[in-house]
Amino acid sequence: MLRLQNISKTFNIGTINENNLFNNFSLTIREGDFVTIIGSNGAGKSSLLNIISGAMPQDNGNIFIKDRDVSLMEEYKRNKFIGRVFQNPALGTSPKMTLLENLAMAYNKGKKFNLTPGIQKKDIPYFKEVLSELSLGLEDRLDTKVGLLSGGQRQAVAILMATMTDPQILLLDEHTAALDPKTSDVILTLTEKIIREKGITTLMVTHNLKQAIEMGNRLIMLHRGEILLDCDGEEKAQLTMKKLLSYFEKANKDDLVSDQMLFSNIG
Amino acid sequence: MDFLINILEQGLIFGIMVLGVFITYKLLNFPDLSVDGTFPLGASITASALVLGINPWIATIFAFIGGAIGGAITGFLHVKLKITNLLSGILVMTGIYSINLRIMGKANIALFQQKTIFSSGVGVLLTLGIFVLVIKIILDLFLKTKLGFLLNAIGDNPVLVSSLGLDVGKVKFLGLALSNGLVAMSGSIMAQYQGFSDVGMGTGVIVMGLASIIIGEMIFKRIPFVLTTTIVLFGSILYKAITAIALRMGLPATDLRLITAIIVVAILSIYGRGIPLLWKRKVKGGAPLVATTKHI
Questions:
Q1: CATH of the domain at B263
Q2: Which one, of B270, B218, B201, B264, lies nearest residue B46 by Cα?
Q3: pLDDT score at B272
Q4: Which residues of B touch A (CB under 8 A)?
Q5: How far apart are CA B17 and CA A263, in angstroms?
Q6: What pTM, to 2 d.p., does this model score?
């Protein structure tokens, strides 16, 4: 489904800040996998997603999505089959447009954006239906500007929009990190539900170990651009917080600061 | 009475330009200075065409096309050559000055003998009223189409447009072309209205456009269910009224630009908190940069 082959990436090449992150990094994700990705700061979690989505070019190596080589494809072209939800809820929607307008745009993804009316009346019942599944009462606020919704509501709408046209891959970049714990839980439940129903191949970056253990069928731990742990199925089901932490400790024993930050973050 | 009619007429003519500036400034979030060049470009094209005996309506459409090309060049400089938005506009504005001189062959052309769109006998105000209304309605309808939605979304959140699998650059390109087309059309009608085209008539157009938008927003924003295009047109008429009153009070016409600048500064300083200060809009959440470089 998604194949990364010998990816290399170095930041600030030729300067004193040169920082080699990935060196011949390879990874294969199977169709329908729901992968949670963890790792301390600077491990390359976000860079990995950025390289897959094309937001950041790799120095070397190839990326295949469904056996199509997308290594040199521009970001917006890759976005035709990639759905993405960012940490910042503002990035998934257009705040000064209404909920209805936002959904209509997302629903039209992959089709032509031409001079036909932006809102097709026949789609409204469908929009109401998907919104009512969120149980946030948004189905009655179709004409509200999205900028007036709360961060959690916006993120829920963003997930809905990113998955509306069934992308081949869904990239979630700490998409609940900016939300309060309760809203975060609501969004995660929703995320899981949508992914399960649609069977979308998903990569989810998270800082929350509990989320990483509980969600998905596969877990990858990155450290400084390398895969430290990659487990799925039975092995993942038996993972405990304690085991994960011991891995972290091993990897980070020379990096006390991020270790402490990590411990303080366990929720 | 004549005084009021003049204000209304000029407000409507400039209104077309303000609709253009509204597209770049409000929708694309792109401070486009090329309008200072495309406004007289429209006038130059029309004047030369009228002298050649071309139908004034067709000459007006030529002006639109010329302006759109100008805007497209600004788009090309910004999108393809990665020149900053302000500088792209300034470069086009500067370059167009020479083009205007070439088109007209001299610094100004008088149009007293030529037939203009006002020669039909319907009356200046009525012609203008209908013309502006038609343009406004077409723009309103356009902004409700799928393509129009993209113009709306792009200044707000370019990441979203890219997420939809679309090229952000192309949408900007389109917006700039459309905007400058309207601005040139406004210049074309201005030349026909005042009976001459002058190479210097574009100076300060961007500031007049911004002043109109800001005045319109300040006064009419609280009224519900009014489209922004309507607000912007009222702003244009109001702006003309303010400057006309200032001139009536005895200020010489040569002070017009200074008056405009002072009006804009005054309004921004009074109202600055509620309204995005010139082109520094309020940051809503993080910029795209933050989304791609997060490491904390």
A1: 1.10.3470
A2: B201
A3: 59
A4: 142, 144-150, 152-153, 156-157, 159-160, 162-168, 284-286, 288, 290-292, 294-296
A5: 59
A6: 0.86
